């Protein structure tokens, strides 16, 4: 956890100061939770995340509307666009574009789109928060997925930068490429 925490803290620090910075490799968790069971993933279609009305136009940065109600207590994934390419699995290197917002306010805190370049990571290696490692797994290239990540799979009680303590995060992730392990 020490290495992952340091990497996430460094990534968040770059994220907070990334106005015009072309480094900015970071990935924050997505969306809401009350008390999440860390190993549980709920997949929905037409549930809470569909109510967020996320665009299916993969050539443009998606907007995340302000959510309403209580955040879910488990990781929620929703394929807005189902890809047709290779499925991502633990150990694979993936390239994504993403937008991250806070459940509590709906405000964006990070977006690879704003830096004009995608983000690369190796799934399951702890490069990012657990909600990302678990939420992107199984996604197919060419897809867009919404992740709602409870605090337990994000930054927890300590928060990080613009992400407050016990914050649920919402991410919209576009999977651009998968390189097998």
Description:
This protein has 181 residues and is α+β, with helices and mostly antiparallel strands. Helices cover 14% and strands 25% of the residues. The protein is built from 3 helices and 7 strands. It has helices at residues 2-16, 112-115, 130-136; strands at residues 41-43, 75-81, 93-102, 108-111, 119-122, 144-149, 169-179. Strands 1, 2, 3, 4, 5, 6 and 7 form a 7-stranded mixed sheet that branches. Strand 3 (93-102) and strand 4 (108-111) form a beta hairpin. The longest helix is centred in the first third of the chain and has 15 residues, at 2-16. The two termini are 22 Å apart.
**Helical percentage:** 10-25%
Poorly predicted sequence stretches spanning 5 or more consecutive residues = 1-50
Topology, number of strands: 7
Biggest β-sheet: count, sense, barrel? 7 strands, mixed
Structural class assignment: alpha+beta
Termini, distance in Å? 22 Å
**Averaged pLDDT:** 79
CA radius of gyration:
14 Å
Note the run of SSEs as H and E.
HEEEEHEHEE
Which key phrases capture this entry?
single chain, alpha+beta, seven-stranded mixed beta sheet, 3 helices, disordered N terminus
Helix/strand layout:
Blueprint: H1 2-16, E1 41-43, E2 75-81, E3 93-102, E4 108-111, H2 112-115, E5 119-122, H3 130-136, E6 144-149, E7 169-179
Parallel strand pairs: 1-2
Antiparallel strand pairs: 2-6, 3-4, 3-5, 3-7, 6-7
TL;DR of this structure?
Helices cover 14% and strands 25% of the residues.
